[in-house]
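Pasting as-is:
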Amino acid sequence: MKLTTLCYLHTASDILLAMKKKGLGVGKLNGVGGKVEDGETVEQAIVRETLEEIGVSINEENLEKVAIITFTHEVKTEWNQECHIFMVSEWEGDPVESEEMNPEWYLKDNLPLERMWESDAYWLSDVLGGDRIRASFNFDKNMKMKNDFAIEPLIE
């Protein structure tokens, strides 16, 4: 199972989502992030990925871990991952489009869930409201979410 990261830049009212332009989740809106490389911590990986994908510099000290979510796939087991998810409200630079991601700001209270992963509807609003979670979501061969998911408080 791969170790991955996601980061959501946010203000009091808005959240930055980015449309994935290639790879797993192409066409979907999501946070920015990716695989943790050998020798990296999840915090180092998200700092690197955020700079690579949207040109924004973040400091590890400003990262707030809000979730650890396991995503498993019935057929594409190489996509199985444990994803560490962070929120950040302080950064340097303006988000810009890259070969992989096209970032846009959205109101937190009007998330475009129809353009996001199906599982996001079950956890993202709660996390934006202050909850910290550990969850697991399973996807079938058609990349549709199965009903056997779990969400619990994150205790680290």
